[in-house]
Design a protein that fits this description.
Blueprint: H1 2-26, H2 32-50, H3 54-60, E1 68-72, E2 81-85, H4 87-98, E3 103-107, E4 113-116, E5 121-132, E6 142-153, E7 156-166
Parallel strand pairs: 1-7
Antiparallel strand pairs: 1-2, 3-5, 4-5, 5-6, 6-7
Helix pairs in contact: 2-3
Amino acid sequence: MHKTLLVALTVSALSTGAVASAHAVENEPLDAATLGAIKSKFGRLMKLANNHDFKALHGMFWQSPSTLLVAKSAIQSEGNWAGFWGNEAVDQKLRDIGSSGPVVLDPDYSKLKVVGLTRDVAESYVPLNITVSYAGQDGTPKPFLMIINWIKVAKDWKIASEIILPVPPAPPVKE
């Protein structure tokens, strides 16, 4: 009796899990083609950034005072890292960084993840190495994380926020 009940509960739990998983897939707000298009936009962003094409970069961002870029600051009163709001501030920060010397963004595309949050909002995440000589950085490649929130504007996907975070060094191993 107990074995039969246990088997019945196990089968029920497994089938419910399969239904829940199938249900979750059906409820994804964005289809694979849209997620692929956003990944392509990300690749274009990397190419434009590495080529210092500031005009084209401007066009990739949502044209709004709510657009956000989080990046290294060169102004001590802003702190080491700061948020830059609005297109004028974002454009200026990108020009400042890009004009400081060579800048190379090298994402690990095998770890690029794009997910739909709603039908009009998506998020991408990727670890990358950035080589830059801006605001006291020494021009050697260092690990960062890049998190981008994408917003659908008309029929195009634009960057609503780009958050670049340095990966801190691993703590020393205690022996």
